[in-house]
Task: inverse folding
């Protein structure tokens, strides 16, 4: 039997396809509707512009009553993103509302890139540079924007390595 | 706690906190179903130590007005779940009131949309809510209703919609409620922080707003350490509600600090 969480995720996906918000995209992984891959394009007029940042969104059966776990897979340099890619954003924690869908989650993260909250830092260096040395901050961000373009190649290499190790065993 | 704890600035402690919270929720879930069976007050007395005279005395007081009590899981949603179950249970035997409730909740969707709630997700909750409500149309049964309310997915959808109704009532009548909100926050902020998120506990303002939004008078017996008797508070929906200003409560709840259960009058 399909659960409310799965039914709702199908609806979220349909909506994302029919009415895609600009600058974000997302889809369930091939064989698991509870695990999504998403991309956020760096918003214009921010240091993140032109970056293509990958994320995973992991849902539980409690969705949409509980928020999913969202993580950047691409390297990120942002005051509210932890070293492991997880995000400090109130709507993904104690201010989650069940009326948010995947589309709302992704656009909220997109606007977080635009508008960091240095008062609840997850990355102290980024928060400090954002406050005190905007030029250096932008330089560091520019570096991860560049890296975000290489992600595809990296994954390709990893896949190849995996293939090799399989072949070896 | 670990005496050698040292703060790691690169670690996401929010996730740890959330994991801990989930573990506590799981423990509660295993010991109490979302909507429990009907219990006698003798079962309730068992929960208190022999020497706890105040509470034992108050249970005796309740016995003079109520025949049984139904326990609800303490997960921060107990007011909404208790309200939802108790009211739908009442509608099982009241077809006219059922029609009134269907009418008012059907119309509620457009009211919420007009307040700016997102259509896509609102419709999802409204559809499931109306499905559950239709289960009590005759010949519905308490057993079926209980089964539905113990299905976490469906039950939580029902709770979410009640929370949205409260949020809509507060935001739609902002001026009336603004002064009852503590802290420097707007009604909208309050709804975002204390009403819409699941698991946020309910206070008087939630009860008043829900009673008004669906026109259902509610009475709550407050059972705490003060005085000898429970303190009965009635929340009337005011004009336009079931039976008007002096209406008999449609449902009774028992409040013990931090928790609501359902009461059945004699």
Result:
């Amino acid at each position: 039997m399909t659960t409310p969480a799965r039914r709702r995720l199908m609806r979220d996906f349909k909506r994302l396809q029919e009415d895609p918000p600009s600058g974000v995209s997302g889809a369930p992984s091939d064989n698991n509707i509870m695990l999504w891959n998403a991309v956020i394009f760096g918003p214009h007029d921010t240091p993140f512009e032109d970056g293509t940042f990958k994320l995973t969104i992991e849902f539980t059966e409690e969705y949409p009553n509980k928020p999913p776990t969202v993580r950047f897979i691409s390297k990120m340099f942002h005051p509210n993103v932890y070293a492991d890619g997880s995000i400090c954003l109130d709507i993904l924690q104690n201010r989650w509302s069940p009326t948010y869908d995947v589309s709302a989650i992704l656009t909220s993260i997109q606007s977080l890139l635009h508008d960091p909250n240095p008062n609840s830092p997850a990355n102290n260096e980024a928060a400090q540079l954002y406050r005190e040395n905007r030029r250096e901050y932008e330089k560091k961000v520019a570096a991860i924007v560049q890296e975000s373009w290489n992600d595809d190649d990296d994954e390709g290499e990893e896949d190849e390595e995996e293939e090799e190790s399989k072949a070896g065993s | 706690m670990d005496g050698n704890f040292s703060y790691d600035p690169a670690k996401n402690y929010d996730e740890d906190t959330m994991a801990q919270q989930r573990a506590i929720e799981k423990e509660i879930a295993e010991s109490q179903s979302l909507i429990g069976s009907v219990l006698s007050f003798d079962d309730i007395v068992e929960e208190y130590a022999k020497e706890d005279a105040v509470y034992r005395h108050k249970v005796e007081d309740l016995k003079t007005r109520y025949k049984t009590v139904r326990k609800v899981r303490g997960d921060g949603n107990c007011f909404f779940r208790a309200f939802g179950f108790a009211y739908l249970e009442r509608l099982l035997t009241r077809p006219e009131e059922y029609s009134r409730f269907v009418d008012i909740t059907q119309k509620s969707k457009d009211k919420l949309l007009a307040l700016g709630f997102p259509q896509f997700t609102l419709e999802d909750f409204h559809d499931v809510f109306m499905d559950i409500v239709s289960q009590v149309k005759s010949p519905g049964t308490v057993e079926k209703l209980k089964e539905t309310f113990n299905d976490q997915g469906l039950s939580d959808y029902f709770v979410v919609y009640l929370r949205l109704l409260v949020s809509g009532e507060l935001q739609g009548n902002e001026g009336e409620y603004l002064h009852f909100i503590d802290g420097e926050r707007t009604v909208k902020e309050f709804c975002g922080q204390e009403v819409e998120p699941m698991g946020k506990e309910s206070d008087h303002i939630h009860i008043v707003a829900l009673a008004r939004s669906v026109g259902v008078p509610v009475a709550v017996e407050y059972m705490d350490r003060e005085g000898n008797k429970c303190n009965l508070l009635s929340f009337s929906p005011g004009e336009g509600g079931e039976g008007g200003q002096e209406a008999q409560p449609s449902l009774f709840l028992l409040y013990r600090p931090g928790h609501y259960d359902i009461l059945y009058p004699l």
Observations:
- Residues 35 and 146 of chain B are 7 Å apart (CA to CA).
- Chain B has a mean pLDDT of 89.
